[in-house]
Design goal:
The chain is an all-alpha fold. Helices cover 78% and strands 0% of the residues. It is built from 38 helices and no strands. It has helices spanning 3-19, 22-41, 45-58, 65-78, 82-95, 103-116, 120-133, 140-153, 157-170, 175-190, 194-207, 214-227, 231-242, 249-264, 268-281, 285-301, 305-318, 323-338, 342-350, 359-375, 379-389, 395-411, 415-427, 436-448, 452-463, 468-484, 488-501, 506-521, 525-538, 543-558, 565-575, 580-596, 600-613, 618-631, 635-644, 650-664, 668-679, 686-701. Helix 24 (436-448) runs antiparallel to helix 25 (452-463). The longest helix is centred in the N-terminal third of the chain and has 20 residues, at 22-41.
Length: 702
């Protein structure tokens, strides 16, 4: 072959290679495509972004480009480059031919990326487009579920429920069907449609017993039953969540549910244990705060006030921006008031003055500040705040303010005014639960005035209240009413029920004091001491605790085991920081003790101190002061003191005492006038007045 021929052949070979590169290029495309695919599966999104962009530039017409574009968009999304991701999606849709198999997937991911980029309007439109154009693909239930979740996040619960139901109805065997049921239940919970949630979840919980969603479903069921106040059933559901075969965060939440349901059932020790477990397992600060808050309430019920204070103070000091910091401040302020730490209570409340989240929250602060002002003796400021809140449009706040004005009148010893305010509070709302405090206080006034049947009826109404602390007060007030009525059997039966039903609670410890009174009458002093100690240990801030201390001091004094009773009480009065009401009560008791010892000068000083500490005691203190003058045979001074008493029920008792003093002075006509007038009054003393009147008239005719 000639040189020219050889050159021609070589040229043809080179030309054939240049004109036919396709096998080599196809191998390159395939290799690069696989590299991008592997990087995407490894979730190496920066590498995917780099390789995919190069691939699309180098092979713009390659069929694999549509899938590479989708991977590029998803990688940009994961790298939080949402704008670029959506730009890639726009380019991808332009490349897709009508009917291309990738359309449903592309629409789904475009909607997802839009949702993450917070372009919710676009996300909803694209999800809806997918549902309408591709109603029967594997992407359809995912889009239906995602659209429901958007409505759920927007709190448009009816619309969300419609989409969740559609998933469960049309795709019952899909992975999304399980989530759809759970999201539907969540919507019911948020809408407080607890019955609907229970109806949906009960069969579902049993079907999903061994799945990863079992704990979540059981927890939601517990929440729904808790909302219906079916606490025993709720606890069983929460325990199912705790004991799920595949533990999860929902199992942890189950401990919280067990703790809360136990609290509602009065099983406080079990509650604290469950909440403590929850707090150890919870991994986020928000859940820790919730656990601290609930645990604090439970510890209150157990009478562990110091531990409760620690929980609430942790929230206030370490989580000041959390929503529960406000609620914790209010509870902590109330605990400080109970301990007599009024300045501390005021400081906790003042920090929220003008800073509460809304008018209703500010009104709650003002209500507690009014109570603090009343404890400080600042009647004018308390009245201003109560009257300010009494104009609220919220029935609960209005009722509380009117009841507060009743407490103010009671503080001043204005019993008729207090009764009028409490009755006004009860008329202010059609919901009995909102007026429980007013009902309780009105019942106490009825009891004080000897109208036992009316008092008992009111106490029984309050016992059904959702407000557990007020209901507990009503139970113990009913015990006192039965004791006053000399229905000892009823009183002891109720005490036994309280102590059996909630054996380790504050109310059980308070009930122990009344039980001590009964066993002491039976000569069981050792049992009485034990019961009083229980009250002091688990209900240290209660009025019953002060009474238990006094009872123990009396028993010690009788046995001559230490200083005199009067000296013990004086020591408490002088050295302990007690609430105003308890100081007044001690001063009154010291006056009685001094009077029994015929130290009338000291008795008068203590009675004066009691009246100054608590205006409500002024009439009672005046009555006892008058009794001191009477015992000291200074009858004219006694008559002057009795005559000056104007507040019921002490006014009636003072009139009866006056008549008896007049009898001693042989001023029978004056005594008869008083007895005749009292005999016509609708008071328990009328019977005595009639008898004395009849005896004196008979003696006159002899």
């Amino acid at each position: 072959m000639t040189p020219r021929a050889r050159a021609c052949v070589a040229g043809l070979l080179l030309l054939s290679v240049w004109l036919a590169p396709r096998p080599v290029q196809a191998a390159e495309v395939s290799g690069n495509y696989v590299s991008i695919q592997r990087a995407f599966l490894r979730e190496d999104f920066p590498l995917v972004a780099a390789l995919a962009q190069e691939f699309l530039k180098q092979y713009p017409q390659a069929p694999e480009g549509v899938r590479v574009s989708l991977w590029l968009a998803l990688s940009f999304d994961r790298l939080q480059r949402g704008v670029e991701a959506l730009q890639v999606m726009e380019g991808l849709k332009k490349r897709l031919a009508t009917g291309h198999a990738l359309w449903p997937e592309a629409l789904y991911w475009e909607a997802e990326i839009s949702r993450k980029a917070e372009d919710i309007g676009r996300a909803k439109r694209v999800y809806q487009q997918l549902l309408e154009q591709y109603p029967n693909t594997t992407w359809t239930p995912q889009a239906e579920l995602a659209l429901g979740m958007i409505y759920m996040q927007q709190q448009a619960y009816p619309s969300a429920i419609t989409h969740f139901r559609e998933v469960a109805r049309r795709f019952p065997l899909s992975a999304q069907a399980v989530d759809a049921v759970l999201f539907e239940a969540y919507c019911y919970l948020q809408s407080r449609r607890f019955d609907d949630a229970v109806t949906l979840l009960i069969p579902y919980v049993h079907r999903q017993a061994q799945t990863r969603q079992a704990a979540q479903a059981a927890f939601y069921l517990g929440e729904a039953l808790n909302g219906l106040k079916r606490y025993d059933e709720a606890m069983a559901a929460y325990r199912r969540a705790v004991n799920a075969s595949q533990p999860s965060n929902w199992s942890t939440f189950g401990h919280f549910g067990v703790g809360w349901s136990s609290y509602q059932l009065g099983r406080c020790e079990e509650s604290v244990q469950a909440l403590a477990t929850y707090r150890q397992l919870a991994t986020t600060p928000e859940y820790q705060v919730e656990a601290l808050f609930a645990e604090g309430h439970c510890l209150q019920q157990l009478g562990r006030s110091e531990d409760a204070r620690t929980r609430f103070r942790d929230i206030v000091e370490a989580h000041a921006t959390h929503a529960l910091a406000f609620e914790s401040s209010l509870v902590l302020a109330d605990l400080e008031q109970q301990r007599g730490q009024v300045p501390s209570a005021r400081a906790l409340l003042e920090q929220w003055r003008g800073k509460a989240s809304d008018d209703a929250a500010q009104a709650r602060v003002d209500l507690q500040l009014a109570g603090v002002s009343l404890m400080e003796g600042d009647v004018a400021e308390a009245r201003r705040l109560y009257e300010q809140v009494s104009g609220s449009s919220a029935p609960q706040l209005r009722a509380a303010a009117l009841a507060g004005l009743g407490d103010l009148a009671l503080f001043q010893g204005d019993l008729p005014g207090a009764q009028a305010r409490y009755e006004s509070a009860m008329r202010s709302s059609q919901e009995p639960g909102l007026t429980a405090h007013a009902q309780l206080q009105l019942g106490r006034l009825k009891l004080q005035n000897g109208r036992l049947d009316e008092a008992i009826a009111l106490f029984r109404q309050v016992m059904a209240s959702d407000q557990s602390s007020v209901a507990d007060d009503a139970r113990l007030a009913l015990v006192v009413a039965y004791m006053t009525q000399r229905e000892q059997g009823l009183a002891r039966a109720l005490l036994g029920h309280i102590r059996r039903q909630r054996p380790h609670s504050t109310v059980a410890a308070r009930a122990a004091y009344y039980e001590a009174l009964f066993v002491l009458e039976e000569g069981e002093e050792a049992s009485a001491r034990r019961l009083c100690q229980e009250t002091l240990k688990h209900a240290a801030s209660s009025e019953e605790a002060l009474d238990a201390r006094l009872l123990l001091a009396e028993m010690r004094s009788r046995e001559r085991l230490g200083q005199s009773l009067r000296a013990q009480i004086e020591g408490w009065y002088e050295t302990e920081n007690l609430p105003r009401g308890q100081r007044a009560k001690l001063a009154l008791r010291l006056g009685d003790q001094a009077s029994r010892e015929r130290d009338y000068a000291a008795a008068l000083r203590w009675y004066d101190a009691a009246g100054r500490a608590l205006p409500a005691l002024q009439s009672e203190a005046a009555y006892r002061s008058a009794s001191c003058f009477e015992e000291g045979q200074d009858y004219e001074r006694a008559l002057q003191w009795y005559q000056a008493i104007e507040q019921p029920p002490w006014q009636v008792r003072a009139q009866l005492a006056m008549a008896k003093v007049l009898e001693r002075q042989n001023r029978i006509p004056e005594a008869l006038k008083i007895y005749a007038r009292m005999a016509k009054e609708p008071v328990p003393e009328a019977k005595v007045a009639k008898e004395r009147y009849a005896l004196l008239r008979a003696a006159q005719h002899e």
